Amino acid sequence: MKRKYFTTTLPYINARPHIAHAREFVMADAYRRLYSFFGYDTLLNVGTDEHGLKIFRQAQKERKEPKQYCDEQVRHFKKLCEKLDIAYDLFTRTTDGLHVEAVQEFWKTCDKNGFIYKKKYKIKYCVGCELEKTDSELINGKCPDHPNQKIEIIEEENYFFKLSVFQKKLLQLYKQNPDFIKPAKRYNEIVAFVSRGLEDFSISRLREKMPCGIEVPGDPEHVMYVWFDALVSYVSAIGWPHDMDMFKKWWPVTQFCGKDNLRQQTAMWQAMLVAADLPFSEKVLVNGFITVDNQKMSKSLGNVIDPLKMSARYGSDATRYLLLSFGVFGEDADITWERLDKRYNADLANGIGNLTSRVVTLYKKVDYTFDFDKGKREAFVNNKGLKSIAEEGRLGTELDDIMKQVRYLDKTIEEEKPWELLRSDQEAFRESIEGLSRGIFYIALRLKPFMPGISSAIHESLIKKDKIHFFPRL
Known about the structure:
The chain has about 475 residues and is an alpha/beta fold. The chain has a domain at about 335-465: Isoleucyl-tRNA Synthetase, Domain 1. The protein is built from 19 helices and 16 strands. It has a 6-stranded parallel beta sheet with strand order 3-2-1-12-13-7, sandwiched between helices. The chain has a 4-stranded antiparallel beta sheet with strand order 5-4-6-8, covered by helices on one side. Strand 1 (about 5), helix 1 and strand 2 (about 40-50) form a beta-alpha-beta unit.
Protein backbone atom coordinates (compact mmCIF):
# COMPACT_ATOMS: atom_id res chain seq x y z
CA MET A 1 0.00 0.00 0.00
CA LYS A 2 1.20 3.53 -0.78
CA ARG A 3 2.20 5.49 2.31
CA LYS A 4 2.75 9.13 3.25
CA TYR A 5 4.27 10.43 6.47
CA PHE A 6 3.82 14.13 7.32
CA THR A 7 5.26 16.23 10.13
CA THR A 8 4.96 19.81 11.23
CA THR A 9 7.84 21.56 12.93
CA LEU A 10 7.67 21.34 16.72
CA PRO A 11 6.82 24.84 18.00
CA TYR A 12 8.61 26.30 21.00
CA ILE A 13 6.24 26.48 23.94
CA ASN A 14 7.64 29.55 25.65
CA ALA A 15 4.34 31.26 24.74
CA ARG A 16 0.77 30.35 23.74
CA PRO A 17 0.07 28.98 20.22
CA HIS A 18 -0.15 31.66 17.54
CA ILE A 19 -1.76 31.82 14.13
CA ALA A 20 1.33 30.57 12.24
CA HIS A 21 1.30 27.38 14.33
CA ALA A 22 -2.38 26.97 13.53
CA ARG A 23 -1.90 27.41 9.78
CA GLU A 24 0.97 24.91 9.67
CA PHE A 25 -1.03 22.34 11.67
CA VAL A 26 -4.11 22.81 9.47
CA MET A 27 -2.10 22.57 6.26
CA ALA A 28 -0.43 19.34 7.38
CA ASP A 29 -3.77 17.91 8.48
CA ALA A 30 -5.41 18.84 5.16
CA TYR A 31 -2.59 17.15 3.24
CA ARG A 32 -2.91 14.07 5.37
CA ARG A 33 -6.67 13.90 4.73
CA LEU A 34 -6.20 14.56 1.03
CA TYR A 35 -3.71 11.73 0.56
CA SER A 36 -5.88 9.42 2.64
CA PHE A 37 -8.64 10.15 0.15
CA PHE A 38 -6.25 9.26 -2.66
CA GLY A 39 -5.91 5.81 -1.08
CA TYR A 40 -2.66 6.29 0.83
CA ASP A 41 -1.96 4.92 4.29
CA THR A 42 -1.03 8.15 6.10
CA LEU A 43 0.60 9.29 9.34
CA LEU A 44 0.73 12.79 10.85
CA ASN A 45 3.17 13.90 13.55
CA VAL A 46 2.88 17.13 15.51
CA GLY A 47 4.35 18.06 18.86
CA THR A 48 6.25 20.56 20.98
CA ASP A 49 9.88 21.67 21.34
CA GLU A 50 10.57 21.84 25.08
CA HIS A 51 14.27 22.61 25.43
CA GLY A 52 16.41 25.70 24.94
CA LEU A 53 17.19 29.07 26.47
CA LYS A 54 13.83 30.71 25.70
CA ILE A 55 11.90 28.03 27.58
CA PHE A 56 14.39 27.94 30.46
CA ARG A 57 14.15 31.70 30.98
CA GLN A 58 10.36 31.75 30.72
CA ALA A 59 10.14 28.97 33.31
CA GLN A 60 12.46 30.94 35.60
CA LYS A 61 10.33 34.04 35.09
CA GLU A 62 7.27 32.10 36.26
CA ARG A 63 9.25 30.47 39.09
CA LYS A 64 8.64 26.97 37.82
CA GLU A 65 10.77 23.98 36.94
CA PRO A 66 11.16 23.74 33.12
CA LYS A 67 9.34 20.38 32.95
CA GLN A 68 6.43 21.67 35.05
CA TYR A 69 6.20 24.75 32.86
CA CYS A 70 6.25 22.63 29.68
CA ASP A 71 3.59 20.24 30.99
CA GLU A 72 1.29 23.22 31.51
CA GLN A 73 2.04 24.79 28.13
CA VAL A 74 1.52 21.57 26.16
CA ARG A 75 -2.16 21.64 27.08
CA HIS A 76 -2.65 24.82 25.03
CA PHE A 77 -1.17 23.21 21.91
CA LYS A 78 -3.27 20.08 22.30
CA LYS A 79 -6.33 22.26 22.81
CA LEU A 80 -5.50 24.07 19.55
CA CYS A 81 -5.35 20.74 17.72
CA GLU A 82 -8.69 19.75 19.23
CA LYS A 83 -10.39 23.03 18.31
CA LEU A 84 -9.10 22.89 14.72
CA ASP A 85 -9.92 19.20 14.24
CA ILE A 86 -6.27 18.21 13.68
CA ALA A 87 -6.36 14.42 13.33
CA TYR A 88 -2.77 13.75 14.35
CA ASP A 89 -1.49 10.24 15.00
CA LEU A 90 1.59 11.19 17.00
CA PHE A 91 2.25 14.05 19.40
CA THR A 92 5.99 14.19 20.01
CA ARG A 93 7.39 16.09 22.98
CA THR A 94 11.16 16.56 23.03
CA THR A 95 11.11 15.71 26.74
CA ASP A 96 9.66 12.24 25.99
CA GLY A 97 11.95 9.44 27.15
CA LEU A 98 12.12 7.64 23.79
CA HIS A 99 12.92 10.90 22.01
CA VAL A 100 15.73 11.67 24.47
CA GLU A 101 17.20 8.21 23.88
CA ALA A 102 16.90 8.64 20.10
CA VAL A 103 18.67 12.02 20.14
CA GLN A 104 21.55 10.62 22.14
CA GLU A 105 21.86 7.68 19.75
CA PHE A 106 21.70 10.07 16.79
CA TRP A 107 24.55 12.09 18.34
CA LYS A 108 26.63 8.96 18.92
CA THR A 109 26.22 7.88 15.29
CA CYS A 110 27.19 11.31 13.92
CA ASP A 111 30.17 11.37 16.28
CA LYS A 112 31.26 7.83 15.36
CA ASN A 113 31.11 8.81 11.68
CA GLY A 114 33.42 11.75 12.30
CA PHE A 115 31.03 14.68 11.96
CA ILE A 116 31.26 16.11 15.50
CA TYR A 117 34.21 17.91 17.10
CA LYS A 118 34.86 20.35 19.94
CA LYS A 119 36.27 23.88 19.79
CA LYS A 120 36.17 27.30 21.46
CA TYR A 121 34.20 30.00 19.70
CA LYS A 122 32.53 33.39 20.05
CA ILE A 123 29.25 34.32 18.38
CA LYS A 124 26.37 36.78 18.39
CA TYR A 125 23.22 34.93 19.39
CA CYS A 126 19.48 35.65 19.16
CA VAL A 127 17.60 33.86 21.93
CA GLY A 128 14.30 34.45 20.09
CA CYS A 129 15.49 32.42 17.08
CA GLU A 130 17.77 30.15 19.12
CA LEU A 131 20.30 30.83 16.35
CA GLU A 132 23.66 32.54 15.94
CA LYS A 133 23.63 35.67 13.79
CA THR A 134 26.18 37.24 11.47
CA ASP A 135 26.51 41.03 11.22
CA SER A 136 24.92 40.91 7.76
CA GLU A 137 21.78 39.34 9.26
CA LEU A 138 21.32 42.09 11.85
CA ILE A 139 19.61 45.44 11.35
CA ASN A 140 20.96 48.19 13.60
CA GLY A 141 22.48 45.46 15.73
CA LYS A 142 19.11 43.70 16.21
CA CYS A 143 17.59 40.51 14.85
CA PRO A 144 14.90 41.59 12.34
CA ASP A 145 12.56 38.84 13.61
CA HIS A 146 13.04 39.73 17.30
CA PRO A 147 13.94 43.46 17.41
CA ASN A 148 12.88 43.78 21.05
CA GLN A 149 15.43 41.22 22.23
CA LYS A 150 19.06 41.99 22.91
CA ILE A 151 21.65 40.13 20.83
CA GLU A 152 23.81 38.15 23.23
CA ILE A 153 27.48 37.28 22.94
CA ILE A 154 28.30 33.63 23.58
CA GLU A 155 31.94 32.72 24.17
CA GLU A 156 32.64 29.16 25.29
CA GLU A 157 33.83 25.73 24.24
CA ASN A 158 31.12 23.76 22.41
CA TYR A 159 30.69 20.76 20.18
CA PHE A 160 30.28 21.48 16.46
CA PHE A 161 28.70 19.66 13.54
CA LYS A 162 30.70 19.56 10.27
CA LEU A 163 28.07 21.12 8.03
CA SER A 164 30.79 22.63 5.83
CA VAL A 165 31.65 19.24 4.26
CA PHE A 166 28.10 18.73 2.94
CA GLN A 167 27.93 21.47 0.30
CA LYS A 168 28.42 19.17 -2.69
CA LYS A 169 26.06 16.47 -1.40
CA LEU A 170 23.30 18.99 -0.62
CA LEU A 171 23.58 20.69 -4.01
CA GLN A 172 23.39 17.25 -5.62
CA LEU A 173 20.23 16.52 -3.60
CA TYR A 174 18.58 19.74 -4.80
CA LYS A 175 19.63 19.24 -8.43
CA GLN A 176 18.40 15.66 -8.61
CA ASN A 177 15.13 16.53 -6.81
CA PRO A 178 13.87 19.90 -8.08
CA ASP A 179 10.55 19.30 -6.29
CA PHE A 180 12.27 18.66 -2.96
CA ILE A 181 11.48 22.19 -1.72
CA LYS A 182 8.25 24.03 -2.51
CA PRO A 183 7.57 26.72 -3.53
CA ALA A 184 10.27 27.19 -6.19
CA LYS A 185 11.22 30.56 -4.70
CA ARG A 186 12.42 28.85 -1.52
CA TYR A 187 14.17 26.15 -3.54
CA ASN A 188 16.16 28.82 -5.38
CA GLU A 189 16.89 30.59 -2.10
CA ILE A 190 18.44 27.54 -0.41
CA VAL A 191 20.40 26.56 -3.51
CA ALA A 192 21.94 30.05 -3.55
CA PHE A 193 22.66 29.87 0.17
CA VAL A 194 24.41 26.50 0.01
CA SER A 195 26.29 27.48 -3.15
CA ARG A 196 27.97 30.33 -1.26
CA GLY A 197 29.54 27.81 1.13
CA LEU A 198 28.54 26.38 4.51
CA GLU A 199 29.96 26.84 7.99
CA ASP A 200 30.03 24.31 10.81
CA PHE A 201 27.51 25.06 13.54
CA SER A 202 27.51 24.65 17.29
CA ILE A 203 25.41 21.76 18.60
CA SER A 204 25.93 22.02 22.36
CA ARG A 205 25.73 24.46 25.25
CA LEU A 206 27.36 24.43 28.69
CA ARG A 207 24.95 22.94 31.19
CA GLU A 208 25.87 25.53 33.84
CA LYS A 209 24.59 28.29 31.50
CA MET A 210 21.64 26.43 29.96
CA PRO A 211 20.51 23.37 31.95
CA CYS A 212 17.31 22.86 29.94
CA GLY A 213 18.47 20.31 27.37
CA ILE A 214 19.45 16.71 26.61
CA GLU A 215 22.81 15.65 27.98
CA VAL A 216 25.61 15.11 25.47
CA PRO A 217 26.64 11.43 25.57
CA GLY A 218 29.85 11.06 27.57
CA ASP A 219 30.02 14.74 28.57
CA PRO A 220 27.62 15.73 31.39
CA GLU A 221 28.93 19.32 31.32
CA HIS A 222 27.19 19.89 27.96
CA VAL A 223 23.60 19.70 26.75
CA MET A 224 22.57 19.55 23.11
CA TYR A 225 21.70 22.62 21.08
CA VAL A 226 17.94 22.85 20.74
CA TRP A 227 17.88 22.59 16.92
CA PHE A 228 19.96 19.39 16.88
CA ASP A 229 17.55 17.93 19.42
CA ALA A 230 14.24 19.04 17.87
CA LEU A 231 14.95 17.96 14.28
CA VAL A 232 15.60 14.39 15.39
CA SER A 233 11.92 14.24 16.40
CA TYR A 234 11.06 13.54 12.75
CA VAL A 235 12.74 10.14 13.02
CA SER A 236 12.22 9.43 16.73
CA ALA A 237 8.45 9.86 16.27
CA ILE A 238 8.32 6.87 13.92
CA GLY A 239 10.48 4.51 15.94
CA TRP A 240 14.12 5.25 15.14
CA PRO A 241 16.18 3.58 16.53
CA HIS A 242 14.08 1.44 18.92
CA ASP A 243 11.51 0.23 16.35
CA MET A 244 13.19 0.00 12.96
CA ASP A 245 10.29 -1.86 11.38
CA MET A 246 8.05 1.12 12.05
CA PHE A 247 10.75 3.53 10.86
CA LYS A 248 11.28 1.68 7.59
CA LYS A 249 7.52 1.53 7.05
CA TRP A 250 7.06 5.29 7.20
CA TRP A 251 10.31 7.05 6.24
CA PRO A 252 10.90 9.38 4.31
CA VAL A 253 8.83 12.33 5.49
CA THR A 254 7.11 15.37 3.99
CA GLN A 255 7.95 18.31 6.27
CA PHE A 256 6.07 21.57 6.81
CA CYS A 257 7.85 24.66 8.06
CA GLY A 258 7.92 28.45 7.96
CA LYS A 259 10.34 30.34 5.75
CA ASP A 260 12.37 31.35 8.83
CA ASN A 261 13.17 27.63 9.28
CA LEU A 262 14.30 27.10 5.69
CA ARG A 263 18.03 26.63 6.35
CA GLN A 264 17.53 24.35 9.31
CA GLN A 265 14.97 22.12 7.57
CA THR A 266 16.50 21.87 4.10
CA ALA A 267 20.25 22.07 4.78
CA MET A 268 21.17 21.41 8.42
CA TRP A 269 18.70 18.57 8.93
CA GLN A 270 19.41 16.89 5.59
CA ALA A 271 23.15 16.93 6.35
CA MET A 272 22.48 15.51 9.82
CA LEU A 273 20.53 12.64 8.27
CA VAL A 274 23.49 11.71 6.07
CA ALA A 275 25.82 11.94 9.07
CA ALA A 276 23.59 9.46 10.91
CA ASP A 277 23.46 7.04 7.94
CA LEU A 278 19.80 7.85 7.18
CA PRO A 279 18.08 8.76 3.88
CA PHE A 280 17.01 12.32 3.04
CA SER A 281 13.49 13.57 3.67
CA GLU A 282 11.00 13.31 0.81
CA LYS A 283 9.85 16.93 0.55
CA VAL A 284 9.82 20.24 2.43
CA LEU A 285 6.83 22.59 2.05
CA VAL A 286 7.64 26.13 3.17
CA ASN A 287 5.07 28.68 4.35
CA GLY A 288 5.45 32.44 4.42
CA PHE A 289 4.83 34.67 7.45
CA ILE A 290 1.45 35.93 8.56
CA THR A 291 1.40 39.68 9.11
CA VAL A 292 -1.27 42.08 10.39
CA ASP A 293 -1.54 45.31 8.39
CA ASN A 294 1.88 44.47 6.91
CA GLN A 295 3.47 44.31 10.37
CA LYS A 296 4.79 41.18 11.96
CA MET A 297 2.50 40.12 14.81
CA SER A 298 3.74 41.33 18.18
CA LYS A 299 2.25 41.36 21.67
CA SER A 300 3.81 44.77 22.24
CA LEU A 301 2.00 46.12 19.16
CA GLY A 302 -1.24 44.50 20.25
CA ASN A 303 -1.87 43.00 16.80
CA VAL A 304 -1.71 39.31 17.70
CA ILE A 305 -4.50 37.16 16.24
CA ASP A 306 -5.17 34.23 18.55
CA PRO A 307 -6.17 31.04 16.65
CA LEU A 308 -8.28 29.87 19.61
CA LYS A 309 -10.23 33.13 19.43
CA MET A 310 -10.61 32.54 15.69
CA SER A 311 -12.06 29.11 16.39
CA ALA A 312 -14.47 30.55 18.95
CA ARG A 313 -15.58 33.28 16.51
CA TYR A 314 -15.85 31.33 13.26
CA GLY A 315 -15.98 27.67 14.26
CA SER A 316 -13.44 24.93 13.53
CA ASP A 317 -14.08 24.37 9.80
CA ALA A 318 -14.41 28.06 8.95
CA THR A 319 -11.14 28.80 10.75
CA ARG A 320 -9.43 26.03 8.79
CA TYR A 321 -10.78 27.53 5.56
CA LEU A 322 -9.61 31.04 6.44
CA LEU A 323 -6.12 29.86 7.42
CA LEU A 324 -5.68 27.96 4.16
CA SER A 325 -7.28 30.44 1.78
CA PHE A 326 -5.43 33.62 2.74
CA GLY A 327 -2.35 34.34 0.64
CA VAL A 328 -0.44 32.43 -2.02
CA PHE A 329 1.35 29.32 -0.78
CA GLY A 330 4.90 30.15 0.28
CA GLU A 331 4.30 33.91 0.36
CA ASP A 332 3.44 36.13 3.31
CA ALA A 333 -0.27 36.54 4.10
CA ASP A 334 -1.45 39.88 5.46
CA ILE A 335 -4.64 39.66 7.52
CA THR A 336 -6.78 41.55 10.00
CA TRP A 337 -9.95 40.63 11.86
CA GLU A 338 -11.84 42.82 9.37
CA ARG A 339 -10.43 40.91 6.39
CA LEU A 340 -11.17 37.59 8.04
CA ASP A 341 -14.78 38.66 8.66
CA LYS A 342 -15.14 39.82 5.08
CA ARG A 343 -13.80 36.54 3.65
CA TYR A 344 -15.96 34.53 6.05
CA ASN A 345 -19.15 36.36 5.03
CA ALA A 346 -18.39 36.31 1.30
CA ASP A 347 -17.16 32.75 0.87
CA LEU A 348 -18.87 30.87 3.67
CA ALA A 349 -22.01 32.62 4.98
CA ASN A 350 -23.14 34.06 1.63
CA GLY A 351 -21.34 31.42 -0.44
CA ILE A 352 -21.26 27.78 0.62
CA GLY A 353 -23.79 28.16 3.44
CA ASN A 354 -26.40 30.12 1.47
CA LEU A 355 -26.04 27.94 -1.63
CA THR A 356 -26.49 24.72 0.34
CA SER A 357 -29.55 26.11 2.11
CA ARG A 358 -31.19 27.17 -1.16
CA VAL A 359 -30.55 23.88 -2.91
CA VAL A 360 -31.68 21.65 -0.03
CA THR A 361 -34.87 23.72 0.37
CA LEU A 362 -35.73 23.03 -3.29
CA TYR A 363 -34.53 19.43 -3.17
CA LYS A 364 -37.05 18.66 -0.39
CA LYS A 365 -39.77 19.17 -3.00
CA VAL A 366 -38.51 16.20 -5.07
CA ASP A 367 -40.32 12.97 -4.13
CA TYR A 368 -37.29 10.67 -4.36
CA THR A 369 -33.57 10.70 -3.43
CA PHE A 370 -30.81 10.95 -6.03
CA ASP A 371 -27.81 8.61 -6.09
CA PHE A 372 -25.19 11.29 -5.48
CA ASP A 373 -22.11 9.09 -5.20
CA LYS A 374 -22.42 7.96 -8.81
CA GLY A 375 -19.02 8.54 -10.40
CA LYS A 376 -18.16 11.61 -8.34
CA ARG A 377 -15.93 10.00 -5.72
CA GLU A 378 -13.91 8.14 -8.34
CA ALA A 379 -13.55 11.33 -10.35
CA PHE A 380 -12.25 13.12 -7.25
CA VAL A 381 -9.71 10.44 -6.40
CA ASN A 382 -8.44 10.28 -9.99
CA ASN A 383 -8.28 14.06 -10.40
CA LYS A 384 -4.75 14.62 -11.78
CA GLY A 385 -5.07 18.36 -11.36
CA LEU A 386 -5.80 17.98 -7.66
CA LYS A 387 -2.88 15.60 -7.21
CA SER A 388 -0.65 18.17 -8.92
CA ILE A 389 -1.93 20.85 -6.53
CA ALA A 390 -1.16 18.57 -3.58
CA GLU A 391 2.35 17.84 -4.83
CA GLU A 392 3.03 21.54 -5.36
CA GLY A 393 1.65 22.60 -1.99
CA ARG A 394 -0.99 24.90 -3.50
CA LEU A 395 -4.01 23.96 -1.39
CA GLY A 396 -5.34 27.51 -1.69
CA THR A 397 -5.69 26.93 -5.45
CA GLU A 398 -8.14 24.09 -4.83
CA LEU A 399 -10.17 26.25 -2.45
CA ASP A 400 -10.29 29.04 -5.05
CA ASP A 401 -11.58 26.54 -7.60
CA ILE A 402 -14.24 25.28 -5.16
CA MET A 403 -15.46 28.86 -4.67
CA LYS A 404 -15.68 29.27 -8.46
CA GLN A 405 -17.97 26.24 -8.51
CA VAL A 406 -20.08 27.76 -5.71
CA ARG A 407 -20.51 30.96 -7.74
CA TYR A 408 -21.31 28.94 -10.88
CA LEU A 409 -24.10 27.06 -9.09
CA ASP A 410 -25.47 30.30 -7.65
CA LYS A 411 -25.57 31.72 -11.17
CA THR A 412 -27.26 28.52 -12.45
CA ILE A 413 -30.04 28.89 -9.85
CA GLU A 414 -30.69 32.47 -10.94
CA GLU A 415 -30.75 31.51 -14.61
CA GLU A 416 -32.85 28.32 -14.35
CA LYS A 417 -35.26 29.64 -11.68
CA PRO A 418 -36.22 26.10 -10.51
CA TRP A 419 -38.98 27.50 -8.23
CA GLU A 420 -40.80 28.56 -11.41
CA LEU A 421 -40.17 25.19 -13.09
CA LEU A 422 -41.82 23.53 -10.08
CA ARG A 423 -45.15 25.03 -11.19
CA SER A 424 -44.73 24.74 -14.97
CA ASP A 425 -42.52 21.72 -15.78
CA GLN A 426 -42.00 18.99 -13.18
CA GLU A 427 -39.48 17.04 -15.30
CA ALA A 428 -37.36 20.13 -15.94
CA PHE A 429 -37.58 20.95 -12.23
CA ARG A 430 -36.25 17.53 -11.31
CA GLU A 431 -33.40 17.78 -13.82
CA SER A 432 -32.47 21.22 -12.50
CA ILE A 433 -32.50 20.13 -8.85
CA GLU A 434 -30.60 16.94 -9.58
CA GLY A 435 -27.83 18.93 -11.27
CA LEU A 436 -27.70 21.44 -8.42
CA SER A 437 -27.79 18.74 -5.75
CA ARG A 438 -25.01 16.78 -7.42
CA GLY A 439 -23.00 19.98 -7.62
CA ILE A 440 -23.42 20.55 -3.88
CA PHE A 441 -22.47 16.93 -3.21
CA TYR A 442 -19.27 17.33 -5.23
CA ILE A 443 -18.40 20.61 -3.46
CA ALA A 444 -18.78 18.81 -0.12
CA LEU A 445 -16.59 15.99 -1.41
CA ARG A 446 -13.86 18.42 -2.43
CA LEU A 447 -14.11 20.22 0.94
CA LYS A 448 -13.51 17.02 2.92
CA PRO A 449 -9.74 17.46 3.47
CA PHE A 450 -10.13 21.14 4.33
CA MET A 451 -13.46 21.35 6.20
CA PRO A 452 -14.27 17.79 7.30
CA GLY A 453 -17.16 18.71 9.60
CA ILE A 454 -18.97 20.87 7.06
CA SER A 455 -18.33 18.31 4.32
CA SER A 456 -20.09 15.62 6.37
CA ALA A 457 -22.90 17.99 7.35
CA ILE A 458 -23.66 18.86 3.71
CA HIS A 459 -23.70 15.21 2.70
CA GLU A 460 -26.03 14.39 5.61
CA SER A 461 -28.38 17.23 4.71
CA LEU A 462 -28.66 15.89 1.16
CA ILE A 463 -29.36 12.37 2.36
CA LYS A 464 -32.00 13.49 4.88
CA LYS A 465 -33.30 16.38 2.77
CA ASP A 466 -32.96 18.45 5.89
CA LYS A 467 -31.76 22.04 5.65
CA ILE A 468 -28.83 22.70 7.96
CA HIS A 469 -27.82 25.96 9.56
CA PHE A 470 -24.17 26.85 9.58
CA PHE A 471 -21.95 29.86 8.86
CA PRO A 472 -24.22 32.51 10.42
CA ARG A 473 -23.48 35.90 8.90
CA LEU A 474 -21.31 38.12 11.11
